[in-house]
Design a protein that fits this description.
Strand content: 15-25%
Order of helices and strands: EEHH
Helix content: 10-25%
Pfam families: Methyltransf_16
Distance between the termini: 30 Å
Strand order of the largest sheet: 1-2
Structural class: alpha+beta
Shape: globular
Number of strands: 2
Radius of gyration: 13 Å
InterPro entries: Methyltransf_16 (IPR019410), SAM-dependent_MTases_sf (IPR029063)
């Protein structure tokens, strides 16, 4: 599989609560494995809430993301350690 060219993808930015910005290349056409799903963005933001001690609850934990998108939830979780 080759890297996407500039003609068929666009940038999706995810801004964490601490101001860090994650940049994901999303394909314009496709579904499984090439889309940043809205539900993934919501779940990612939820990981940054007080329910997870603003991400500190994930520090040192092992996680597996079973999804169908670009893996943004796993990427966000990994940023917490």
């Amino acid at each position: 599989m080759s890297a996407p060219s500039g003609d068929n993808f666009f940038i999706r930015e995810y801004e964490k609560n601490n101001g860090d910005i994650l940049i994901i290349n999303q394909l314009e056409v496709g579904d499984v494995g090439c889309v940043v799903w809205d539900a993934a963005l919501v779940l990612s933001k939820y990981l940054e809430t007080k329910d997870f001690s603003f991400g500190k609850e994930l520090d040192g934990k092992h996680m597996i993301e079973i999804g169908a998108g670009t893996g943004i939830v796993g990427i966000v979780a990994a940023t917490f350690g």
